[in-house]
TrEMBL record:
<dbReference type="InterPro" id="IPR008183">
    <property type="entry name" value="Aldose_1/G6P_1-epimerase"/>
</dbReference>
<protein>
    <submittedName>
        <fullName>Aldose 1-epimerase</fullName>
    </submittedName>
</protein>
<dbReference type="InterPro" id="IPR014718">
    <property type="entry name" value="GH-type_carb-bd"/>
</dbReference>
<dbReference type="InterPro" id="IPR011013">
    <property type="entry name" value="Gal_mutarotase_sf_dom"/>
</dbReference>
<feature type="signal peptide">
    <location>
        <begin position="1"/>
        <end position="32"/>
    </location>
</feature>
<keyword id="KW-0732">Signal</keyword>
<dbReference type="Pfam" id="PF01263">
    <property type="entry name" value="Aldose_epim"/>
</dbReference>
Length: 392
């Protein structure tokens, strides 16, 4: 039987940590003009702009990022005519986010992917492997080479399997931080000289992360460069929680242009079985142009065989009651799957554009291409997603 999963980190339920630490819901108002707040010794950075006078269509107004956390997006705000400013991301306030990350987080930074929009590298999603005797790491293989990863996640049910989750940069600060302000927004960029990520990866990697704000769009990109001497597999993604402004989750509509779904063992482990099944005629078919209502359906699933429009994978979150819509555009051709996480009891939906399937090195895939990009020394790859707004 499928059971809604809640991740445990070091034996603590993450959802309970958020409530206990913040004391607020995930849709608390953001204040784009608030002073910067320090997270892990580095101040937050906000780009902001004023809506066009007399604007008749929605516009982005701000983005706040955390340089100490690989430039993760803490909040994005937008102006909707007749409604004012709306939070695009479901996230605690900047002050509560800082308190949560400074005081309650794990050494791996796992609370970072429970708010805002964290970037994930060199693997989004789950990786299974042989658990070490002390329960702290797992080992897996790529091209007969051993990869040793933090075993930073586990489900809550008896018999749940500890595994690696969401990459190695959740708590990594950027260097070479550059902030450019323009009348229409601006750009924030930073660099991560990751090396081999403390021995957890096969080569050495530099990342360039860039976020650009304008009235019409918000762009986020990561360029990964293999600066080492070995081949390496690379998966890139993010974990954004999109706000549902009306609070009525049942009538929110979701559009995902994916024709196949990856079957999982259950919604606690959420491990892929290696089977891809057609969505046609099932509750997981969200391909209609105006989407399908979420109702009370639980989602923690991965769609593939994505249809591209003008070369872009377009996912839409539509909140008819709020007359609100956001487009999530997967620009990079390397984006092969969409993971969506939507618990019925929450007022958010996570839409995760990523290169790869879950457990990409797993034997269950039987040598299928699981979406990881192989970078030879000197090669690069890019992940790029663009957000847009509309009134449905």
């Amino acid at each position: 039987m499928n059971v809604p999963r809640t991740h445990f980190i070091l034996g603590v339920t993450l959802s309970s940590v958020i409530v206990a630490v913040t004391g607020i819901t995930m849709t608390s108002p953001a204040h784009a003009e608030s002073p910067s707040v320090t997270v892990n010794g580095m101040p937050s950075v906000t780009l902001s702009r004023k809506p066009t006078p007399g604007a008749t269509k929605p516009e982005f107004t701000s983005v706040t990022v955390l340089p100490s956390r690989a430039l993760m997006l803490q909040q994005v705000t937008a102006y909707f005519p007749g409604k004012g400013e709306i939070n695009v991301l479901a996230s605690p306030s900047l002050e509560e986010s800082a308190r949560m990350l400074n005081e309650m987080d794990t050494p791996n930074g796992d609370l970072g992917y429970r708010l805002g929009a964290a970037f994930l590298f060199p693997y989004p999603n789950r990786i299974r492997g042989k658990l070490s005797a002390d329960g702290k790491t797992i080992t897996t293989e790529w091209r007969d080479k051993i990869i040793n990863l933090p075993a930073n996640s586990i489900g809550k049910l008896t018999g749940a399997e500890r595994h690696a989750m969401h990459g190695l940069i959740l708590k990594t600060p950027v260097t070479d931080l550059k902030v450019t302000h323009t009348p229409d927004g601006g750009t924030i960029s930073g660099v991560i000289h990751g090396g081999d990520f403390n021995g957890h990866w096969l080569s050495k990697t530099d990342l360039v992360i860039r976020i650009t704000l304008s009235g019409n769009n918000l762009d986020a990109s990561i360029v990964a460069h293999n600066v080492g001497n070995e081949d390496e597999p690379v998966g890139i993604g993010w974990h954004p929680y999109f706000n549902l402004p009306s609070g009525d989750r049942t009538q929110v509509r979701l559009h995902i242009p994916g024709s196949e779904l990856a079957k999982v063992d259950n919604y606690d482990n959420v491990f892929p079985t290696g089977q891809l099944v057609p969505v046609a005629g099932t509750a997981y078919d969200f391909r209609a142009p105006d989407g399908k209502a979420l109702g009370d359906q639980f989602l923690d699933d991965n769609w593939s065989h994505l249809t591209r429009t003008a070369g872009v994978v377009v996912v839409k979150v539509i909140d008819p009651a709020a007359k609100y819509g956001v487009r999530i555009e997967g620009v990079s051709p390397e984006i092969k799957t969409i993971q969506a996480y939507a618990p019925p009891t929450q007022k958010f939906i996570a839409i995760e554009d990523q290169f790869n399937f879950g457990d990409p090195f797993g034997k269950e895939w039987d040598k299928m291409d699981t979406g990881m990009v192989t970078l030879h020394p000197g090669q690069s790859t890019q992940w790029h997603v663009r957000l847009g707004l509309f009134i449905p």
